[in-house]
Amino acid sequence: MRKIQKILVHEQVSQEIQNYIQEKEMSDGDKLPSVEEMTHMFGVGRSSLREALRSLEALDIIQVENGKGIFVRDVNTFRFMGKVKIEQERNFLLDTLEVRRALEGQAVRLASKRINDNQIAEIEACLEEYRRQKEAGDDTSRIDLAFHRAIIKATGNQVLESVLDSFSVMYERFFNEPLGDKQLFDDTYPFHITMFDAIKAHQTEIAMQEFYKMMDCIENKLKSV
Q1: CB–CB of 186/212 below 8 Å?
Q2: By CB distance 3.0 to 4.6 Å, which of 5, 10, 11, 83 could disulfide with 51?
Q3: Contact at 8 Å (CB) between 29 and 72?
Q4: How big is the CA angle at 144 (ends 218 and 104), to the nearest 5 degrees?
Q5: At residue 8, what are phi and psi to the nearest 5 degrees?
Q6: Which structural domains are found in the chain, ordered by start?
Q7: Span 161-179, mean pLDDT?
Q8: By C-alpha distance, which of 216, 185, 222, 224 is closest to 90?
Q9: Would the keyword DNA-binding be found if you checked this record's keyword annotation (predicted)?
């Protein structure tokens, strides 16, 4: 049995400092807050902070100058690390998308044959709320996830629903700021409507065509970031 890897405090602090550099859009030579200020900012002890600073200095992200302060040293290195992180998440999402095509595709096929009037009304209300939030510029990730779960529920297949539930932690990555962008997949909204219209009309082949258009749109978005 594999042991659960612990995330050490200094590793968390190191990540928070990198996030701070990114959020403040800092450049080479910019000065970071003092050790005292950062212990209060991150709510950690001086030893954890100093260990985080040592690790960042070893990566050439910062430079600690005694008596002067802590300075951003190489933004290009920081950007490279950020790019690697994005690449890792993109690959994870693309792998997950392949599983979605198989499992959720089957859900769309079954839902188009089995959906009932109550489920149709539920999904119509879901789509209306999706439209309202999208037009208001709100975060649509939760309502988007609710739409897909309603389609899965409409299959009437408890085993398939259970399999997708067990897959939910990875599945939800698509709806939780994928690659740091809550609106990344907003272009898929029209396919939600056309796919559902086909499901409601029990037009299985059209529903599948629209589902694959949605999946292709997501894949293209991921590859273009």
Answers
A1: no
A2: 10
A3: yes
A4: 60
A5: -75, 155
A6: 9-73 (1.10.10.10), 83-224 (1.20.120.530)
A7: 74
A8: 222
A9: yes
- 8 A C-beta contact, residue 107 and residue 152: yes
CA–CA separation, 180 and 86 (whole Å): 9
pLDDT of residue 70: 94
**Residue 2's pLDDT is what?**
38
Reading the block at residue 215, the tokens are: 């999946």
If we measure between CA atoms, which residue out of 95, 89, 107 comes closest to residue 163?
A: 107
> Could you tell me the two tokens for 29?
């030579």
The pTM for the full model equals 0.62
For residues 156 and 136, the answer to whether their CB atoms sit within 8 Å is no
Q: How far apart are the C-alpha atoms of 75 and 149, rounded to whole Å?
A: 41
Q: What percent of the chain has pLDDT over 70?
A: 87
pLDDT in tens, 98-155: 989 999 999 999 999 999 999 999 999 999 999 999 899 888 888 998 999 999 999 9
Looking at residue 125, what is its pLDDT?
96
Q: Of the candidates 11, 65, 78, 10, which has an alpha carbon nearest to the alpha carbon of residue 34?
A: 65
